[in-house]
Design goal:
Layout lengths: L11 H32 L9 E10 L5 E11 L7 E7 L16 H9 L3 E6 L24 H19 L4 E11 L1 H10 L6 E7 L17 H14 L3 E7 L7 H13 L3 E7 L9 H4 L1 H15 L9
Parallel strand pairs: 3-4, 3-5, 5-6, 6-7, 7-8
Antiparallel strand pairs: 1-2, 2-4
């Protein structure tokens, strides 16, 4: 979070002026706070139809440079009506190449409604270094394009995902033996990384357009050091035991098919189990399929759920 420093006043007269001026400003500041509070409340209005709530946990992770810090992971929760127990989805967001501060809190409500309609409780973290709690500490920084290292971000991001899973297990309404990890873009990459740690109770994972180092403006379709990502996916494939679904598109401007196919091939060759789906072009940039095309991916995800024996789609209430 950004902080401001008030310069020292070395003379008593200046201190007195500052004190009395601040005293005169207090009523105005109070009024401003009262006026802004309802606006903030409306901006963060909860979706009560899917029982949205918000909490946070503290997690300690290391960054690319070996610095270790503790930061807040904000968790937005959703659940069906009733006491449960409900199977769990941990839903992980991506990373903008230019702006880590927005949105203040990740909440894919349109996509979440699908998972809730299938009977899942959804836990959607806003990870350290993003949103309203964004700081200079950025544990998912992977270095410049010419000197990438994708391992530290995989370690820190998957640590946060598993910390959210630990929190979810403590909730009385969840079925901790039926957990699905889901992620988009960098969140997809981190989902595969977390799956490779084989957390207890996780029965499957879905990777939507997973990868890192992409920039649709500067290098459309060609991420930095894709061969290093191929090596990371091979490492994950060697360790991961659960079935996965990988969904990419032909016109992904972050990760072109030549890369996602190579990553999948490396993952499977190393021993991983992943069903790779390359879908036709979507809109102007297929990387946005998860966010803007649920009607396209929902049937594919539904088939995956059915194969895993997860809950069927519920009838509309």
């Amino acid at each position: 979070m950004r902080s401001g420093l008030l310069g020292p006043h070395h003379k008593n007269s200046m201190r007195q002026f500052s004190f009395f001026a601040f005293g005169r400003l207090l009523p105005t500041l109070g009024l401003c706070c009262l006026l802004l509070a309802p606006l903030a409340g409306r901006a963060q209005q909860l979706s009560l139809d899917i029982n949205e709530s918000v909490t946070s946990i503290d997690v300690s992770v290391k960054d690319l440079y070996g610095r270790q810090e503790s930061g807040k992971v904000v968790i937005t929760q959703f659940k069906p009506a009733g006491p449960g127990p409900f199977p769990v989805v941990i839903l992980s967001h991506g990373r903008s190449p230019t702006n880590r501060q927005d949105p203040p809190r990740f909440r894919f409500t349109r996509q979440v409604r699908y998972f809730v309609s299938r009977g899942f409780a959804v836990f959607e973290p806003t990870r350290i270094g993003y949103g309203a709690y964004m700081t200079q500490f950025d544990p998912e920084d992977s270095g410049s394009c010419s000197s990438k290292d994708y391992a530290p971000m995989a370690e820190s991001g998957s640590t946060e995902i598993l910390a959210v899973l630990d929190y979810a297990r403590q909730q009385p309404y969840v079925d901790a033996k039926r957990v699905l990890l889901v992620g988009q873009s960098v969140g997809g990459y981190l989902t595969v990384a977390a799956s490779a740690r084989n957390p207890e109770g996780v029965v499957g994972a879905i990777n939507f357009a997973g990868g890192a180092g992409g920039d649709p403006e500067k290098r459309p379709g060609n991420p930095c050091a894709p061969q290093l990502l191929e090596e990371m996916y091979a490492r994950f494939g060697h360790a991961a035991k659960m079935p996965m679904l990988w969904i990419y598109t032909e016109n992904d401007l972050y990760f072109a098919p030549v890369h996602s196919k190579a990553w999948h091939e490396a993952f499977v060759k190393a021993g991983g189990n992943a069903d790779y789906r390359l879908l036709p072009p979507f809109a102007q940039n297929g990387h946005m399929l998860f966010a803007r095309g649920p009607e396209i991916w929902e049937p594919i995800v539904g088939e995956f759920f059915d194969r895993l024996g997860l809950p069927a789609l519920r009838a509309a209430q």
